[in-house]
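User: Quick sanity check before I run a bigger batch. Here is a single chain. Can you write out its predicted 3D structure?
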Amino acid sequence: MVTRDEVIYAFRLLLGRDPESVAVIDTFLPMPNWANLRELFLECAEFKSKLKADAFIDGSTDFINSPPSAVDVEISEEHFERLVKHVQTAWETLGAEKPHWSVLTNPKFLPDNIDANVTGFYDTGESSVQIMENAAARAGKVLPQDLTCFELGCGVGRVTSYLAKRFRHVTASDISHPHLRIASEHLQSKGVENVTLLQLKSLETLNSLEPFDVFYSIIVLQHNPPPLIYRMLHLILDKVRIGGCVYFQVPVAYPDYSFSINDYLGAIERGEGTMEMHVLPQLYLFRLLDEHGFRLLDFQRDNWTGPAFHSVTVFAEKLC
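Assistant: Done. Predicted structure follows.
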């Protein structure tokens, strides 16, 4: 857990002011460590409003003058199995200990605080679906309600119930059984009956999916190593019906980011890491869209990962 001094320093260094009260300080004390505290402050609206506009356009942030990242995406099937097992272990631990906070890393959604804030937590799912609707509108694309949708990384069902209102049927998947259990309870409490929950126990689960019309995934892919991001997108894009659409978010750059499968496997053998952040370089993203016959309709830089990452949200239509 972080200390009171660390919270005060975060306010002073990142927001340029002292905390409003002792009670405000106390709301941050359950944060697991200073790194999580820092990320929370970097993502808050007050900090972002203080950033100068040119902070988003200098070479170090927008990577306009950066060399390509050294990232392994093609690995062995054995290595894929180890990656899936590692990610599942990490997220099932988070799902058992801090399920809602693992989805939105705000102190309000930690276990000690979630009962008082659970309604607000799930309300955020409505705006997430509206953002997709806005992307479709900008692209001049109509998404009829009789379509089927596949959601990757549904977590505790924050967005799922709103997708269920929007589409005829939703298959909502997650790698963590504890998250899916809470999602099931939430959907039942809302009387949602057109959702199938699916645990991703292996990559074969994705390969076995029935074709669907819409793919949705936000703040999910980034928590997987690049080879998994690449392989999952490959399998998912293959299942989208011709004329269907995809709406997903993925970081494509981070200063000095690299990924070596051998180095990474060595790190996880030592027990390093729980919630991780990764990127899939834009080269591979565009390659996937091209190989699977997609036309890019809307491409926006987003704020899902904080200012250090270059994260993008894609809306594309499958032509062939």
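The longest strand covers residues 240-253.

User: Great, the batch can go ahead then.
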